[in-house]
Amino acid sequence: MLSTSLSSSATVDVAGGQLYVFDEGDGTAVLFIHGWTLDHRAFQPQLDALVGGYRVIAPDRRGFGQSTAPADLRRETDDILALLDARKIDRTHIVGMSQGGRVAIRFVLSHPDRVHSLTLQGTAADGITADEVPEERIPLEHYVDYVQSGRIGSMIKDWSSHPMMSAFGNAEAQSAIRKMLDDYEGRDLLNFDLETYQWDGRPIDHLQDIQCPLLLITGERDAVARREIARRILNLVPDARETVIHGHGHLCNLTAPAEYNAMLGAFLDSLSR
Question: Of 39, 83, 30, nearest to 181 (Cα)?
Fold first, then answer.
């Protein structure tokens, strides 16, 4: 069934507050789930490119952007379900970036009947451990201390220089990243509780149950651990394929938008045909 857009933006009621949702275009829905410290604008090049042929939906996840619901990863699969129901969407393609990929994997496993396909970019994945290069490790405890001691500016400065946030010389991407980080309020770290960053269970043990088509988009220069996670998923999911964007890293959708959009668009169009 085709989904028809209701408006360009909306709010959806979820546990503890509301989600801000960008919703525009007509046709089959494509839901974008952004990564940590970012918001729906992380996918702006993709929203602009796909809106002519698809209904593009991009929420600010709880704890981020204009959403008022408090950060809690454990509630985010319920948030997606509430969003789809509120916006009258039976099934959707899902694109999950980084931490948003963790959410997307969980949702596909728990609600396979609501998903046409899954695209993962630089994803984290519960239950998959991969060796980290020291300079690529995310020092979360350090960032929590920064935010809770009132030094969010220092936290953002450190995170901005992390290899996973590199714009690879793309000035437009750098500006977009800067704007999102400037708007990041650290709400998820201000009241940090390790349990809100964890789920029960191990999705890795059930990845072979994912039956929908899965595309992995990997930046050639993404973190070593994220590239290893992509390889593990590729070997575990029956209908999975990987495409690599050479010369770019974790945020390759922003730093190489034309190439990324061509890959994602071809994947979605092939399923539509």
Answer: 39
